[in-house]
Every structure is written in C-alpha cells, then in structure tokens.
Amino acid sequence: MLLASYQKTLLECGTDEAGRGCLAGPVTAAAVILPQNFQNSILTDSKQLSEKKRILLQPIIKAEATCFGVCHVFEEEIDRINILNASITAMQRSISKLFPEPEFIIVDGNKFKPYKDIPYETIIKGDGKYLNIAAASVLAKTYRDAYMEKIHKEFPMYNWKKNKGYPTTEHREAIKKYGITKYHRKSFRLLPEQLSLF
C-alpha cells in the first residue's frame, strides 16, 4: 500500500517525469498535491499500470488533487541543456504551476536541484512508495502519450502511437530508413552504430 505523503506537517507535492529515455518527443513532468485523506487502491507507479488503467486514473487524479501542474520540455531544449537538466527543468516548471505553492517537494529518482527555497527529498522508486509521486507519474505519462499520439499522425512511419518515441527496434529501423524528424533528439544516440544522419 502506498503512503499518502513523505511527511505530515508541510503541504507536500510529489513530482515525476516521463520520456527521459526516448529518442523523440518531449520529456514531460507533472507535480501533484493530494489531499491528506486521498486514497486509491489502483494508483501506483505508472510503469506498473496498463495503459487502460492510466487513462482511467487520469481524470480521477485531476478531479481529486488539491492542485496539479504538467509541463513538456521539447527536443531543442533537451539538446541544448541535456536530458537530466531537461527532466529537472520540466519538474520545476510543473511545480511552478501549483497553487497553493507546496512547502515540501518529494521527487522520484535521485537527482533534483533546489527550487526557490522549498525543502525537498529525492526518493528512488518513489513512484511505487508515495501516492503523490505515483499520481504525478500517471499524469506525466498520460499527457506525454497523448502528445506522441498527436505527432504520430504527422510521421506515422515511426509508429509513435505505439512506441511513444522509445528506442524500439521498429523505431530504430524507421530512423535508418527515413532519417530523423524535427521531433527527434539530435543529442541522443539514435542508432546503436550512430550512422551519419545529420
């Protein structure tokens, strides 16, 4: 059973990102403040949930959260500042959308940078331990998936509606065959042998 929050005295948000390991598309983060009495028996780390369950949970989280924020950081910025900084930037921008502002932040993973003067804690596998991080993981994943399905229509040969930009064999074969798009991350190793694509 996931815990409601890391600590009980301060107004706490959980934050997480999706799409860090993708070859195309944004890295997307969400931040969520849940009411102290929030409970949900299905909610856990979005990677452990089926797509159907994530889609089912999204409107529940949005309706029941005290507040939430979601932010995409796109390819050009990822290439400019690197994926780790882009992930942290996306999380911080999603936190900046919260009202009321959190007094404490818990972050999935082990990397974060101070945001304003708000105390924070990084928690490895936090999305499987705390409901507010799990909620953020579901929002980040569902918002990013919806975006990838939208740009799939522009470039259907990469099958982003299925692989969501991750480095599947099919995605890499399409890069070999068709080259790259404006949505690909130029700073990433897009092919194992990194053929000259640019």
From TrEMBL:
Localization annotation: Cytoplasm
This protein's UniProt keywords: Cytoplasm, Endonuclease, Hydrolase, Manganese, Metal-binding, Nuclease
Classification via InterPro entries: RNase_HII, RNase_HII/HIII, RNase_HII/HIII_dom, RNaseH-like_sf, RNaseH_sf
Catalytic activity: Endonucleolytic cleavage to 5'-phosphomonoester
Superkingdom, natural source: Bacteria
Enzyme Commission number(s) of this protein: 3.1.26.4
UniProt cross-references to CDD domains, sorted A to Z: RNase_HII_bacteria_HII_like
Record domain RNase H type-2: where: 10-198
SUPFAM superfamilies: Ribonuclease H-like (SSF53098)
Known cofactor(s): Mg(2+); Mn(2+)
GO MF, any single term: RNA-DNA hybrid ribonuclease activity
EC category name: hydrolase
Record's keyword annotation contains Aminoacyl-tRNA synthetase: no
Pfam families: RNase_HII
Binding site for a divalent metal cation: D16, E17, D108
Co-factor binding details: Manganese or magnesium. Binds 1 divalent metal ion per monomer in the absence of substrate. May bind a second metal ion after substrate binding.
Subcellular location, principal: cytoplasm
Family to which this protein belongs: Belongs to the RNase HII family.
Protein function: Endonuclease that specifically degrades the RNA of RNA-DNA hybrids.
Protein name in the entry: Ribonuclease HII
Lineage: Bacteria, Pseudomonadati, Bacteroidota, Flavobacteriia, Flavobacteriales
Gene: rnhB
